[in-house]
Amino acid sequence: MMVIWIFYFFVALAASSALGIVFSRNVFKSALLLLISLLSVAAVYVLSFAEFLAMTQIMIYAGGILVVIIFGIMLTTKISGQPLVVDNTNIFWGGLTGIVLVYILIRYLPGGSALQPNDLAAENISTLGLRIFVDYTLPFEVAGLLLLIALIGAAVVTSHLKSKVS
Amino acid sequence: MLYLAAFLFSIGIIIVMVKRNAIMVLLGIELMLNASNLNFVAFNQQHGQQSDGHIFALFVIIVAVCEAAVGLAIVLRVYKYYNTSVPDEIADLKG
Q1: Is the Cβ pair B70, A121 closer than 8 Å?
Q2: Which residue in A40, A105, B30, B52 could disulfide with A14, CB within 3.0 to 4.6 Å?
Q3: Does ipTM exceed 0.90?
């Protein structure tokens, strides 16, 4: 079963790069590690027969959100040429919360059967589109309205900023 | 897959609590939303053939995009006003 090993490889890659974000102190490196993690999760989606979701993940997360975050990093860094280094606070309580949370979640997960990619019928993109535009029309329109509101809101909030570099 | 989702969610919680930069907090929130999407896909794979989980995950991605855009706009505004992007140092509410 080659597929299962590929699946586990991408799961391990996503988990380890996410862990790397915690230990990295450079914001830009953290953003790149998040990119690796998101792309690995997209690969996991592909292996779970969710191709359209994987494509959306790559296009929106890796193509959109990461670019926006990197723009934010560049705009909030003082122009000095040095990488932006962040400090850590609350290390004890944060780590304790995370460890306890991962213990509780894993302890009460139903079985372990969800680990393998099983042989469901392959997700058909046309049926997904039909379901979105037939059964989920109202949430689709509301999502479009939400995107418009977020666009206008972000533009209004940042429109008073003057450029730092003259 | 559920284990991966639980792990990613906990990592996101740790990042949100530990890091002293608003952009890192946003990054952790993205990771947590991603974990929830993984859960949707996993449960959709276990139960039913209807692909409701995939559609819900798509809407979660849309909301994540809105959250990232507005959150970064607020971070930029706060950075311009306070000259810092450390959430703990922004303590006064009076504009």
Answers
A1: no
A2: A40
A3: no
